[in-house]
Design goal:
By secondary structure, this protein is mainly alpha-helical. The protein is built from 17 helices and no strands. The chain has 3 domains: 2-37 and 184-413, no CATH class; 56-133; 135-174. It has helices at residues 2-12, 15-35, 39-52, 58-83, 90-96, 105-132, 136-147, 151-173, 184-187, 189-222, 226-229, 239-267, 298-327, 330-350, 355-360, 365-370, 388-413. Helix 4 packs antiparallel against helix 6 and helix 10 (189-222) packs antiparallel against helix 14. The longest helix has 34 residues, at 189-222. The protein starts with a helix and ends with a helix.
């Protein structure tokens, strides 16, 4: 226990790690500040939900229609009065309205708020129709024909899509998609949170974990104390370094997550949409809506992904520990890890001769890092696989457990 304490202190007293952490936090906070220009427009959805509720049904549609019409009429009245015009619709007024100098800031805010409320109401029918027209199997057949898939590739790809087609029917039948969420096509809040914030944090965490773990494992070799420390059996013990690297990784990852996310959720009020379905019709990207294998709320999806961030970074710590024990040099460890990372990251894009092998190549922690916004969805991997994240995590826990045991056993017998 005493050795573990010293190992942790060794890491926590390393200034470069705290300096790097501050740089990453500053970058993430700046990223959020750059998004904050649209906070008033985004947060207006909370006003709608307070008025009509979170679920989209006949009653809420009717209530939103009345609410939207009343707000639009008031906005049109302001515009007509200020411009001596006779506009009949808010859409018509906004298209022609160029000179805003006649309006106070409060009046302009009210007009644009009314237009956003109207946009949410008018979007429902179109999004609902688009959602109901999604045909997973037809798209799959098109992909098979386009890529000329045959044999096992075709069989597995079609089976995966058939399984998700059943899930899509379940989403529609249970009205899981019929909840309000920030309009993704207008604001891109799902991408902002999971791609621009969480994926950045994920990668930053990997860098910090790589540095702190290699520093910890190579410390004795690079400070010329290895002959003294490792000359006895206790000195060769791996348990303290393993737990120290994991505990310190968790500490730094937690700081990386808590500060930016606290600021993000202060700027953008998610309090009303945390219980919205992640598969909401409003969570529609450039081509497809978000299509999840599981019935998840926004809050549950966020928690699951944060869990994945912690698990994968612990895996990165163990991988770095194995490399460090092999090479006993921080710079070589960095180089080998970068090579390992690059090969695993590029493998799926290089393998073009087999959809099956391409899919197998994605079952890695690196894929989980760079695919976080599509976790637990139809788009997690090449051949749709419901348990992709679970299989990947279990598989790599098994691989790394065996790898670390072999590395540790070998190190204990090495001639230092």
């Amino acid at each position: 226990m005493r050795i573990l304490k010293f190992e942790i202190e060794k890491v926590l007293k390393t200034k470069i790690l705290w300096g790097l952490l501050i740089v990453f936090l500053a970058f993430n906070i700046l990223n959020i500040v750059n998004m904050s220009y649209m906070k008033n427009d985004v947060n207006l959805l909370n006003k709608i939900i307070d008025k009509v509720g979170l679920e989209i049904n006949d009653n809420s549609k009717q209530e939103l229609k009345v609410f939207s019409e009343n707000e639009s009429l008031k906005a049109i009245e302001i515009i007509n009065r200020k411009t001596n015009s006779n506009f009949k619709t808010l859409e018509e007024a906004l298209k022609i309205l160029n000179d805003t100098s006649k309006f106070s800031q409060d009046e302009l805010d009210y007009i644009f708020e009314a237009s956003i409320i109207e946009n949410y109401y008018l979007s429902i029918e179109g999004l609902e129709t688009k959602y109901n027209k999604i045909d997973i199997l037809s798209k799959a057949e098109e992909t098979v024909a386009k890529l000329n898939l045959t044999g096992i590739d075709k069989k597995l790809y079609l089976e995966g899509n058939e399984n998700f087609a059943k899930r899509l029917e379940e989403i529609k039948n249970n009205n899981e998609n019929m909840t309000f969420f920030f309009n993704e096509s207008s604001y891109g809040m799902h991408r902002n949170l999971f791609k621009d914030i969480l994926e950045n944090i994920f990668v930053q965490g990997v860098i910090i974990v790589l540095i702190l773990t290699s520093f910890l494992y190579n410390y004795e070799f690079e400070n010329n104390t290895s002959h003294l420390v490792y000359s006895c059996k206790k000195g060769r013990g791996e348990k303290e370094k393993l737990w120290a690297s994991i505990i310190c990784s968790i500490i730094f990852i937690t700081i990386l997550l808590v500060i930016p996310l606290s600021i993000f959720f202060t700027v953008f009020d998610y309090s009303r949409v945390f219980n919205s379905s992640i598969d909401s019709i409003f969570n529609w990207g450039s081509i497809w809506p978000h299509l999840s294998w599981y019935n998840l709320t926004v809050k549950e999806f966020l928690i699951l992904n944060i869990g994945v961030i912690y698990i994968v970074n612990i895996m990165i710590s163990i991988i770095t520990g194995i490399f460090s024990r092999k090479f006993k040099n921080t710079y070589i460890t960095f180089f080998v890890f970068a090579l390992f990372y690059g090969i695993i990251y590029l493998n799926p894009s290089i393998i073009n001769f087999s959809f099956l092998l391409k899919t197998i190549a994605t079952f890695t922690p690196i894929t989980l890092i760079h695919n976080i916004q599509f976790s637990f969805t139809l788009f997690s991997t090449v051949i749709p696989t419901k348990y992709f994240e679970i299989i990947t995590i279990i598989l790599w826990i098994f691989i790394l457990t065996i790898g670390y045991k072999i590395s540790s056993r070998k190190f204990k017998k090495e001639d230092i």
